[in-house]
Input
Amino acid sequence: MDLGFGNTNQSVGNAAANTLLRATQAQEAAIASEISKYDALLESNDSELEKLRERRLAQMKAAQSQKAKWLEAGHGVYSDLSSGGGGQQHDIAKAFFEAAKKSNRMVVHFHRPTTRQCDVFHAALEQLAPRHPETRFVKINVEGCDDVREGGSGVGAKYLVEKLGIVVMPTLLIVKDRKAHHQVRGFDELGGKDDFTVNELAYVLGGHEALTRKDEEDVEPAFISGGERGVNGVNSLRMMFGGRNGVRRGGYDDFDDDE
Output
C-alpha cells in the first residue's frame, strides 16, 4: 500500500496506517458489543431485566466501595513521598514501604529537580493519577540522597536508590503486590523522545501491568508499531515486553517492609 511517503519513509507510512486501522477496528468492535447488549435487553422479560438491574447495582456499589478504599489509601492524586506533613523531611524508605503495603499497584517516580526530563513525567503522571484510581502514583526526590546524617534530606532515599538499583533519572518504578516489578528508565521505552502523549505512557505502563488501560489508551503507539529505536539502538519497548504475557519479569530485587 503506497501512501506517498516515498521508499525511504514507506515503513513509517505503513505503521501509521496500521495504527489507524487497529483503532478503527477497536471502535467497530465496541459498537457491535453495545448493539448486542441492547438486542439482548429487548428480548428479555421483566424478571430477567430485574435480575440484570440488581446485578448492575451490586457491581456499582462494589466499584464505589473499592474506589473509596483506594482514595483513602492516597490514590487519585500524584503525591510526594519525600516530605511528611507540613513539608517536613521524614524517613522516605519507611513512607515507601507503608505505601506499598496499602496499594496493590504503585508507580514511583524517582526524580531530581535539576533534571529537566523529570518534568515531562511529572506533567503526565499528574494527569494519570485521577484517571486511574486503581493505581497509586507517587514521587521521590533523590536530590541530596547522600545527606544521610540525622535529619538530613537523604534519610531513607539512599537506601531505596541502592536497594532498588535506581541508576537513571528519571526512573518510574512499578510496584505490584509489594514487589519491585519493573523499571521504566528514562524515555527509552517511549520512543527515546520526550514528546510522547499521556495515552502513550499509559499504554506502556499498562503493558507492565501498572494500570488497567482505558479504551483511548489501548491503541499501540506508532513508536512501537513503527519500530522506532531508543537510545540503545533497539526497539526497546518490544524488548521490554518480551516474555510470558508480554511482561518482562525479574531482574530487580523484591523487597519486604522490614523497616
